[in-house]
Design brief:
alpha/beta, two-stranded antiparallel ribbon, globular, binds S-adenosyl-L-homocysteine
Length: 213
């Protein structure tokens, strides 16, 4: 089967699983996932599964990327902060839906590789940073949307504070051994509202940057 045919099959599967936002589906369709998947896993690039990307990290399952992106409700004029660049796949999907994505990763090696893919795919509205995502990106705050692609032990309020009024954050929360839940936090004039959306399993959001390997 060609990459195109595999992509069509994947998009159909995502629709069946309840992804119905056509902007999100077409953004996924425009990002070749095989670009972000390491050589040994190319055959599985369009399977609806998470795959290893090195440093003990994973590229998220397409359904989870689609779901989180859909629930983030991104508008095309928005400024979005992503914590956990990883392969850069989720970043690339977001880049098609908003004005600019700011993305932070604690592994320099993963970040460099992701940057190469952004250049290759001519995605020019992505700004990257090597650092601890727990700090967010104070110089660029406030953000209209924040997405965290690693599991936080609890709702990261340091990031929530970088949300604009009316802004939303999607974050998997919970102890890694027990699985986590995707939470959507909305900043209101009065404070924050949270909704629990979906049980998931993510690699943990770690404190500090990684030592180079
Ligand atoms: N969105 C990614 C998912 C990668 S997995 C993709 O589609 O490929 C989660 C990523 O979060 C990993 O790369 C991990 O190194 C990173 N991460 C974990 N804790 C972090 C932190 N405190 N700051 C920045 N990145 C972090």
């Amino acid at each position: 089967m060609t990459a195109d045919a595999r992509m069509v099959r994947l998009i159909m599967e995502l629709r069946r699983e309840g992804i119905d936002d056509t902007r999100v589906l077409s953004a996924l369709e425009r990002v070749p996932r095989d670009t972000f998947v390491p050589g040994p896993f190319q055959e599985q690039a369009y399977d609806n599964i998470a795959l290893p990307i090195g440093q003990g990290q994973t590229i998220s399952q397409p359904f989870v990327v689609a779901f989180m992106t859909q629930e983030l409700e991104v508008g095309d004029r928005m400024k979005v902060l992503e914590i956990g660049t990883g392969s850069g796949y989720q970043t690339a999907v977001l880049a098609h839906l908003c004005r600019r994505v700011y993305t932070v990763e604690r592994y320099r090696t993963l970040l460099r590789l992701a940057e190469q893919q952004f250049t290759k795919l001519r995605l020019h509205n992505i700004t990257t940073r090597f650092g601890d995502g727990n700090d967010g990106w104070p110089e660029q705050a406030p953000f209209e949307r924040i997405i965290v692609t690693a599991a936080a032990p609890e709702i990261p309020m340091s990031l929530a504070e970088q949300l604009d009024i009316g802004g939303k954050m999607i974050v998997p929360v919970g102890a890694s051994s027990m699985g986590q839940e995707i939470i959507r936090l909305t900043r209101t004039e009065e404070g924050f509202e949270s909704e629990s959306l979906l049980p998931v399993r993510f690699v943990p959001l770690v404190k500090g940057v990684a030592r180079e390997t």
